[in-house]
Design a protein that fits this description.
The structure holds two protein chains of two kinds.
Chain A (H helix, E strand, L loop, with lengths): L2 H24 L3 H21 L3 H26 L11 H28 L2 H7 L6 H8 L4 H22 L3 H4 L1
Chain B lengths: L2 H21 L3 H27 L3 H31 L13
Helix pairs in contact in B: 1-2, 2-3
Classes of the chains: A mainly alpha, B mainly alpha.
């Protein structure tokens, strides 16, 4: 793909992502929020395709869009909660949120800029080409990262049992 | 187009998620803001794996983070169901029994 095409796709995806992300936190209806999150997830999958990581894009769509967002929608339709707006009564918290997030963005950006200028990142980037096909990923995943892989299966089991236990009706609830 | 562009998108997404986490009162929106922040981190992992370190380790961490996010959503939504059953609201400012 040509560089200019990649640029155009990048900017379209970037504007879409940020607009939809603002929609997630600003929508008054929870369903609209979930739909904006869907757009963010799909745009993130597009970013992964753009970066040459189709496996991650595939799993992004399967896991996030297919499982997580459907779970969110299911819970919203099950509970049918009232729309809770922005907490505008607490003016102080609005200012605090702004200050904290802008400060955090500036600090992270500054640290990145410092390390980028000190390590001469352009040279490092030119020397390497990632061979991130599904074959390479599988070889590394099942050799060097095998322990983490097995531990996540344990985590999923514990999460499933925990979710069941959490929603179980206790004796007081029934009576 | 390089690591700087993706880095900018990543930290902007993370900041939006942080703002939502602090500002909103709805528990479900708070959980979605956490998902937004996790997505920003995933984007940064893949960007660094592709443009800086040139090995697939970053993508494997993304898989692990996705699994943890799925487990977190399962447990978090179970907690939300239990909360709704107990308090009949999803507004965190009304759920304040632990407040002294």
């Amino acid at each position: 793909m040509e560089a200019i095409t990649q640029q155009i796709i990048f900017w379209i995806l970037g504007i879409t992502t940020i607009t939809a992300a603002i929609g997630v936190i600003a929508a008054s209806n929870t369903i609209n929020s979930v739909m904006s999150l869907l757009v963010v997830m799909l745009a993130a999958a597009g970013f992964y395709m753009l970066m040459g990581a189709p496996v991650v894009a595939l799993f992004q769509i399967i896991i996030y869009v297919g499982a997580v967002l459907v779970l969110f929608l299911f819970i919203i339709m099950l509970l049918n909660p009232d729309a809770t707006g922005l907490s505008m009564s607490r003016k102080l918290s609005v200012w605090m949120a702004g200050i904290v997030s802008v400060g955090m963005t500036v600090v992270i950006g500054w640290i990145f800029w410092q390390s980028a200028t000190q390590t001469n990142m352009q040279n490092v980037m030119k020397n390497h080409v990632c061979s991130c096909t599904i074959h390479d990923i599988s070889v590394v995943l099942f050799s060097r990262h095998l322990l983490i892989f097995e531990l996540t299966s344990l985590l999923l089991l514990v999460a499933a049992v925990g979710a069941l236990l959490m929603t179980k009706k206790t004796r007081e609830d029934r009576s | 187009m390089g690591i700087y562009h993706f880095f900018a998108i990543g930290i902007i997404l993370f900041s939006i998620g942080l703002i939502g986490f602090i500002l909103r009162n709805n528990v479900i929106i708070i959980l979605m803001s956490v998902e937004l922040m996790l997505n920003a981190v995933n984007l940064l992992f893949v960007a660094f794996s592709r443009y800086l370190y040139a090995n697939p380790d970053g993508q494997i961490y993304v898989f692990i983070i996705m699994t943890v996010a799925a487990a977190e959503v399962a447990v978090g939504l179970a907690i939300i169901v239990a909360l709704y059953r107990r308090f009949a609201t999803l507004d965190v400012s009304k759920i304040n029994q632990l407040k002294g």
